[in-house]
Amino acid sequence: SLVGFQSDSLLVSLVLLVSLVLLVLCLQPSCQAAYDSDVHQLYHLLTVDPSQLNVQDQDSGDTPLIAACRHGNLATIKYLLDNKADVHLTNKKQRTCLHYASRRTLSLLDYLMIAILMPVLLLGYFIMLQRQRRNAAVMEELLESRTDVNAVDYKGNSALHYVCQRKSLRLVPLLLQRNADTNIRNNDGETPLDIAVRLKFKKIEHMLKKSH
Question: What is the pLDDT of the chain when averaged over all its residues?
């Protein structure tokens, strides 16, 4: 029933919210501010201690920039980059900020909103477009800062591997324009093209073949 669906959706939302709160409460202060997209707090922390700009969280190894990229906080990312945050630092999973920008996808709450609002004047469709544009803007900011486009994480995946896995049609061209290596093999022996072929993402497959 509709009531049951709404109750289940509310429960899922509450669980996600509690999980996020617990994660944030354990973070190093500047990373927490970045997760919260609290630019004012970041400004205060960096004014008191400039070394907070590239500090790494003890548990995850995340920097404030990586923390912001995990959640796609564009304003926070711009602020950190304007202050010369190091785009090359990696966390304990050997991931850079670009890895997290490439792994960004619609959240469960986004999908829920789209499903509910799609019949209402296509509002769900416009929400989806807005999220995709934001993800592209985040990646463009990082690429302008000369991050290593071919850095690989502990799974051997580059940013291009992840955007191919997620069928990110807006992000693949951005990486290819920066000469992302299409021949890197991850720990499973797959190149980005192998992933696109396996998942039958024909448009991405065409983009990758055309770039050779």
Answer: 84
